[in-house]
Amino acid sequence: MFTSYTKRFALQTKSYHHGDLRSAILNEARTILESQGEEAMTMRRIAEGIGVSAMAAYKHFANRDAILQALAIEGFNKLARVTSRARKKNKLPADAQLVAIGVAYIMHGISHPEIYRVMFGQLTSGITDAATKSAADEAYGVLCDCLRDNAEHFGFEKKEAETHAFSVWSMAHGMTSLFVEGHARTRNFKTKAQQRAVATRGAELVARGVSFRGGNGASDDR
Predict the structure, then answer these.
(1) Per-residue pLDDT tens digits for 72-84
(2) What is the largest CA-CA distance in the chain?
């Protein structure tokens, strides 16, 4: 019986090419993470879900944390694509680009709360892993590039772009975290339309603040 069990798993493992098995592991891990949470995502459950032995999974990832790290990298890469696409859509003016990035960021985090937690959780705090840092920098770079490219419009020097980017990101990350942790639901922002509306309002206020700092915004005191 044991021999039959071993052969069955060996055959199943061989049905995957090397790269395909790694992708299958990540896909299954992501499915478990997003549907049941991080605690449910174990190496054994991932292996069982794709029909391979745990040993086969360990050939690609040293442990569960390594899979979470890979999912965090994927998360940052996807966030970079989503925000970059939002910025470039329809050749938006400078202020609208900033709003589009903010809204895309917040809505993406709301749609993938478990991945967002992994990205910014303890695993990636004080990032030292080169691949994770590179992916995180690329995502953050979309915002920095927007502000740097439009520095003249906003009224500051290009070298100040990253300082402003941190302020803008703080708003987007803060609002996203409130939604991800469920705090915003108590404020009647339960539907996607309500969430997008408040995300847009927040991003517009921040964009206006960036412009106002440079003298391009209008004051309410007239």
Answers:
(1) 999 999 999 999 9
(2) 84
Superfamily of domain 2-61: Homeodomain-like (1.10.10.60)
What is the token pair recorded at 169? 């990101």
Question: How would DSSP label each residue in 45-94?
Answer: HHHHHHT--HHHHHTT-SSHHHHHHHHHHHHHHHHHHHHHHHHHGGG--H
Q: What is the torsion angle, in degrees rounded to the nearest 10, for the CA atoms of residue 146, residue 148, residue 153 and residue 154?
A: 90
Helix count and strand count (H, E) for the chain? 11, 0
Domain ranges of the chain: 2-61, 65-213
Q: What is the pLDDT of residue 212?
A: 66
pTM listed for this prediction? 0.85
Question: Which residue stretches of the chain have pLDDT < 50?
Answer: 1-11, 13-14, 214-222
**CATH classification of 65-213, choosing from 3.90.550.10, 1.10.760.10, 1.10.357.10, 3.20.20.70?**
1.10.357.10
